[in-house]
Amino acid sequence: MKAMIKYSICSILCICFVSLSGCESYLEKSPTDKIITGNFFTTGTAEEVESAINSVYQPLQRSYMYNLRMWTLDIIAGEGRVGNEAGGNGIETVQLSNFIANSDNNGAKELWRGPWAGINRANWVIDNIDLSKKNISDDKISQYKGEAHFLRALYYFNMVRLFGNVPLILHQQTANDNLKVSRTDKNEVYQVIIQDLQNASDYLPQRYTGEDIGRATSGAALGLLAKVYLTLKQYNDVIDVIERLMATNVYSLNENYKDNFDDTKENGPESLFEVQYEKGSPYAPFDVLGQGAWHNEYLAPLAPVNIGGPWGNFGWFHVYSEFAESFEPNDKRKIVSIFSEGDDYQGWIYDPAVSTTGYNVKKFMCTNYGTTNPMDSPLNFPVLRYSDVLLMYAEALNEVGRTAEACAVATAPNVGGPLNRVRVRAGLPSVSGQQAEVREIIRHERRMELAFEGGHRWFDLIRYDEGEYAKNFFHSIGKTNFTLPKHLLLPVPIDDIDANPNLLPQNSGY
């Protein structure tokens, strides 16, 4: 599917935009980011119609989403700090992670603006795909509908967790529409997300073959739906959905944790959904349409040896010792997730002096990066893995009083109770306990298992105990600026509010 996403950008002349600030467009390259919609679906070839759904995926690849902003949520979540602040690098993330950001913060602005192109493209497909019946099969129409519903749900799910009430737009918007929209109550947004994922799970196939591997599947829709229900504390619904997913027998844990972050083993048995990247695309560094991942360059330690790409290493994420020391003895995930003193990486021995904390992120290092464009790693970024599903299942079981099932003994990564299957894969013993004790074990496992993977830790922190868990954690690591309820949400960008006062009221405290 990687090549298909790449070529979709070339084959579509322009994509319709939505600007929620009331301005013409916030995109730097608006002429390459519009579609002439007209009779596209009635006259377009099968390949052109396919390019339309491919275009809905493309914003996921951008720096406003999984190429930068989504993984920097783990810095905000207290797993580390911006490591290279020369010349003001990362100042917006520094402000957010120290809970001193205001409504003019650029990181919050990019997280707010990042999903809208994808949402509007999804609306465009959903509104018009039935017009393609002369050119593509009914099965393809159902599939493309399902992909669009899944992606719209993913974009909105990220937004509603970050900002609370957000504009709910369910049909294609153009520059001729009234774009000064208002924010919608988050409960209504959640109901649309749930309906989208239920639709997607009905429309989508369980598996793909060939170049279609990597597209959203019914399993991806069910896994994301379970996460939505978990966020809403609808635990019985979580259990029902995950048991439907498990009954398909499509997913299993990789025997080796490291295989989830190997560019030669992408879209494997543990992957429900990942953002597809590839090296060798023709775009310039930092281009919004670029297909390569930035993670290798950004996360490579700022060391004497160039292991990040043609420009060297950015060293952007220094991992706190508190996180590094939270791994249990013999946890196999530690050496995969972070650089520690003495680690041998491609013949270079890690020196903790290259980091202000003594640790760096290792999980997304990739030796197979492009040789001309430094922002050009082919390594996909995981959005939803089966280990996450197992831990969600364990949490829901525990919360409804089925604690013994949640922590049943596991004898192998794919044999036994959901919590302990994840632990056994990590080289750790099975555990058990009373409900409150198991709750804390599951929270710890989620932190170590899903570290640095697109904000899981942040989203977990803010949903635990109505934010009290987050406050206690941040205060324990010295981040006493964190207050409730203010810091459970990010600020809506003041630029957008100034252009569109209908976005008021601002989130509390900003």
From TrEMBL:
PROSITE patterns: PROKAR_LIPOPROTEIN
Limits of the RagB/SusD domain: 353-510
Compartment(s): Cell outer membrane
Domain spans labelled SusD-like N-terminal: 26-230
Keyword annotations of the record: Cell outer membrane, Membrane, Signal
Family: Belongs to the SusD family.
Full protein name: SusD family protein
Native species: Bacteroides clarus YIT 12056
